[in-house]
Amino acid sequence: MIRITGIVGSCVLSLMMSGAASAAPRPAPKPTPAPAGDEACTASLEDGKRYHWYTHQGSTNLKSGYIQFTSKRYGRWSKVVHFTDKPKHKGTFWGYHAGASLTIKSNSLGQRWTAYKKYCKGAKIMGSVFKGGKKIHSFTVDTSRVREK
């Protein structure tokens, strides 16, 4: 009796193992589509072009104007013309850009504007304005709105 149980048990075990080996692999899961409204980043910044920017807090727009990266360099930093529409004010910052990312600093105002490609949607690059290490508001640079000289 013990011998029969051992033989039956080994047959069942070998059947289970052969069934597991011959089972077809599972198909790869289908990728989930991106939610509606998410756009791929198409923004890129170039020296010499005037790009429209605006600052906002929540859904309230605060100021607007344009920024222009110039060809004047100091290492990787370049001079940035910063123009505000109302009141009309033209100032200079220092900054750098790479693709759809940018950093602009103004020592006189104590501000740093930083935007990264991961916060880019379509032709708009979004970032934050910091003063004294604290975020004071957000900004958006619209690369599809280039102002004429």
What is the topology?
Elements: H1 2-22, E1 50-57, E2 60-74, E3 77-84, E4 89-98, E5 101-106, E6 111-121, E7 124-131, E8 134-147
Antiparallel strand pairs: 1-2, 1-8, 2-3, 3-4, 4-5, 5-6, 6-7, 7-8
Describe the structure.
This protein has a domain at 50-147: Quinohemoprotein amine dehydrogenase alpha subunit, domain 2 (Lipocalin, Beta Barrel), CATH 2.40.128.120. The radius of gyration is 29 Å and the shape is globular. The model is unreliable at 31-36 (pLDDT under 50). The chain has 149 residues and is mainly beta. The chain contains one helix and eight strands. Strand 1 (50-57) and strand 2 (60-74) form a beta hairpin. The protein has an eight-stranded antiparallel barrel. Helices cover 14% and strands 54% of the residues. The N and C termini lie far apart (99 Å).
